[in-house]
Amino acid sequence: MLELRAIVWGVQDVARALAFWSAALDYEVSSHPDETWAILKLREGRSGPQLSLKLVHSPQARRHHMDLFTHDQAAEVERLIALGARRVPDWRYDPNADYVVLKDPDGNPFCVCQLPEDE
Fold first, then answer.
1. Structure confidence by residue, pLDDT tens digits, 3-46
2. pTM, whole model, 2 decimals?
3. Which of 34, 57, 76, 101 is the most exposed place for a label (fewest CB within 10 A)?
4. How far apart are CA 49 and CA 3, in angstroms?
Protein backbone atom coordinates (compact mmCIF):
# COMPACT_ATOMS: atom_id res chain seq x y z
CA MET A 1 0.00 0.00 0.00
CA LEU A 2 1.24 3.49 -0.87
CA GLU A 3 0.65 6.70 1.05
CA LEU A 4 1.16 10.23 -0.27
CA ARG A 5 3.16 11.75 2.56
CA ALA A 6 5.21 14.46 0.87
CA ILE A 7 5.13 16.87 -2.00
CA VAL A 8 8.60 18.01 -3.02
CA TRP A 9 8.62 21.57 -4.31
CA GLY A 10 11.67 22.77 -6.26
CA VAL A 11 12.61 26.36 -5.42
CA GLN A 12 15.46 28.71 -6.17
CA ASP A 13 15.55 30.25 -2.67
CA VAL A 14 14.79 27.83 0.17
CA ALA A 15 14.65 30.49 2.91
CA ARG A 16 12.21 32.63 0.93
CA ALA A 17 10.03 29.61 0.08
CA LEU A 18 10.12 28.46 3.71
CA ALA A 19 8.81 31.82 4.90
CA PHE A 20 6.13 31.98 2.20
CA TRP A 21 4.80 28.42 2.38
CA SER A 22 4.83 28.17 6.17
CA ALA A 23 2.69 31.32 6.36
CA ALA A 24 0.50 30.44 3.37
CA LEU A 25 -0.33 26.93 4.61
CA ASP A 26 0.07 27.48 8.36
CA TYR A 27 2.73 24.75 8.39
CA GLU A 28 5.68 24.55 10.79
CA VAL A 29 9.32 23.60 10.23
CA SER A 30 9.82 19.87 10.78
CA SER A 31 13.59 19.59 10.65
CA HIS A 32 16.71 21.73 10.63
CA PRO A 33 16.52 23.55 7.30
CA ASP A 34 19.59 24.56 5.35
CA GLU A 35 20.13 26.43 2.11
CA THR A 36 19.34 23.32 0.01
CA TRP A 37 16.49 21.54 1.84
CA ALA A 38 13.66 22.20 4.29
CA ILE A 39 10.64 20.23 5.43
CA LEU A 40 7.35 21.78 6.51
CA LYS A 41 4.70 19.78 8.35
CA LEU A 42 1.15 20.45 9.41
CA ARG A 43 0.62 21.83 12.86
CA GLU A 44 -0.60 19.45 15.57
CA GLY A 45 -4.12 18.15 15.05
CA ARG A 46 -4.16 18.48 11.26
CA SER A 47 -3.51 15.74 8.73
CA GLY A 48 -2.08 15.79 5.24
CA PRO A 49 1.22 15.59 3.39
CA GLN A 50 4.37 17.41 4.37
CA LEU A 51 5.87 19.96 1.98
CA SER A 52 9.56 19.44 1.26
CA LEU A 53 11.42 22.39 -0.26
CA LYS A 54 14.41 21.46 -2.44
CA LEU A 55 16.91 23.85 -3.99
CA VAL A 56 16.99 23.64 -7.79
CA HIS A 57 19.34 25.62 -9.98
CA SER A 58 17.72 25.37 -13.39
CA PRO A 59 14.50 27.26 -14.13
CA GLN A 60 13.71 24.55 -16.70
CA ALA A 61 14.08 21.66 -14.24
CA ARG A 62 11.04 19.58 -13.35
CA ARG A 63 10.57 21.18 -10.00
CA HIS A 64 7.73 19.31 -8.34
CA HIS A 65 7.06 15.70 -7.54
CA MET A 66 5.32 13.46 -5.03
CA ASP A 67 6.93 11.15 -2.50
CA LEU A 68 4.94 7.97 -1.93
CA PHE A 69 5.77 5.96 1.20
CA THR A 70 5.44 2.22 1.75
CA HIS A 71 6.63 -0.63 3.97
CA ASP A 72 7.41 -2.79 0.91
CA GLN A 73 9.25 -0.59 -1.56
CA ALA A 74 10.41 -3.36 -3.90
CA ALA A 75 6.92 -4.81 -4.30
CA GLU A 76 5.35 -1.39 -4.85
CA VAL A 77 7.97 -0.41 -7.43
CA GLU A 78 7.26 -3.59 -9.38
CA ARG A 79 3.49 -3.07 -9.07
CA LEU A 80 3.79 0.50 -10.37
CA ILE A 81 5.97 -0.62 -13.27
CA ALA A 82 3.32 -3.19 -14.17
CA LEU A 83 0.78 -0.35 -14.18
CA GLY A 84 2.87 1.66 -16.66
CA ALA A 85 5.49 3.51 -14.61
CA ARG A 86 9.12 3.26 -15.63
CA ARG A 87 12.44 3.55 -13.85
CA VAL A 88 14.69 6.54 -14.44
CA PRO A 89 17.77 4.65 -15.64
CA ASP A 90 20.43 7.34 -15.22
CA TRP A 91 19.40 8.64 -11.78
CA ARG A 92 22.37 9.11 -9.45
CA TYR A 93 21.34 7.96 -5.98
CA ASP A 94 23.00 9.01 -2.75
CA PRO A 95 24.67 6.02 -1.05
CA ASN A 96 21.97 5.87 1.67
CA ALA A 97 19.00 6.61 -0.55
CA ASP A 98 15.71 5.25 0.78
CA TYR A 99 13.81 6.07 -2.41
CA VAL A 100 13.45 4.91 -6.00
CA VAL A 101 12.73 7.43 -8.76
CA LEU A 102 10.07 6.43 -11.28
CA LYS A 103 8.15 8.25 -14.00
CA ASP A 104 4.45 7.90 -14.57
CA PRO A 105 3.14 7.11 -18.09
CA ASP A 106 3.20 10.84 -18.94
CA GLY A 107 6.83 11.20 -17.86
CA ASN A 108 6.22 12.92 -14.52
CA PRO A 109 8.77 11.87 -11.89
CA PHE A 110 7.84 10.61 -8.43
CA CYS A 111 9.62 8.76 -5.65
CA VAL A 112 8.74 5.55 -3.84
CA CYS A 113 10.21 5.81 -0.34
CA GLN A 114 10.85 2.99 2.10
CA LEU A 115 9.26 3.46 5.52
CA PRO A 116 11.20 2.31 8.58
CA GLU A 117 10.05 -1.02 10.01
CA ASP A 118 8.87 0.59 13.23
CA GLU A 119 6.56 3.08 11.56
1. 999 999 888 889 988 998 898 888 999 889 999 999 999 988 78
2. 0.72
3. 57
4. 9
